[in-house]
Design a protein that fits this description.
elongated, about 210 residues, single chain, mainly beta, seven-stranded mixed sheet
Length: about 210
């Protein structure tokens, strides 16, 4: 192996190609960049002497940044102690934070068949077992949308529950302007009755 020794603030100018392994560190620990195959490269956190693994920590502003924990491969963004496969921390301030944002950059005045969502999947051997929560456009340019819940999406293409931007909720049906609408087959546990200062017409926002 060829070693390039640099001390202090020195610069290697021009393009340098390392065909095998590039090690960055003091010779005992650091980062290795490896050519795994013709189309795959890898970054490995290597501990002292190259005999064990170490966590990888990538920083851009001195804060916790992106952290990959050794042995578990748990990923932390904004934390160096992730407890789940992926844990994202927001700023610690008294405010509403959205540390994870999913965005669909598409918009159209007339084509409203677009949205963005989260897919929940079962079984590592099948792509057919899933549910999702999606925010789908219902007006030009996605200026308003409906929140839809899909269950067993491979076999059920229609949403099982829809919360419209007007605040109306439909269960196994379509939003039709009433506060709560169902498909009419069954709705247990909800009692709709008029109070002393209401008429029955006042509560017909619940359709059973």
């Amino acid at each position: 192996a060829t070693k390039v020794g640099l001390t202090g603030n020195e610069t290697i100018a021009g393009e340098k190609i390392f065909s095998s392994t590039l090690r960055v560190g003091d010779g005992t620990e650091g980062i290795r960049l490896l050519n795994i195959s013709s189309n795959i490269a890898g970054i490995y956190g290597v501990d002292t002497g190259g005999s064990a693994w170490n966590s990888i920590h990538i920083k851009a502003d001195g804060n916790d940044g992106l952290f990959i924990e050794k042995d578990t491969n748990k990923v932390g963004i904004g934390t160096t102690s992730p407890t789940e496969p992926l844990e994202v921390w927001s700023a610690e301030t008294e405010a509403y934070h959205y540390p994870i944002v999913a965005r669909n950059p598409y918009n159209s005045a007339s084509n409203l068949d677009f949205g963005v969502g989260i897919k929940l999947q079962l079984d590592d051997g099948s792509e057919n077992k899933w549910a999702s929560i999606a925010y789908e456009a219902d007006s030009a340019y996605g200026n308003s949308g409906d929140l839809k819940f899909y269950v067993d999406g491979y076999t059920n293409s229609a949403a099982r529950m829809t919360l419209s931007h007007e605040g109306n909720l439909a269960i196994s049906g379509t939003v039709d302007g009433r506060d709560l609408a169902t498909d009419g087959t069954k709705l247990d546990g909800i009692e709709a009755s008029a109070t002393a200062d209401q008429t029955q017409a006042d509560i017909n926002g619940i359709a059973i």
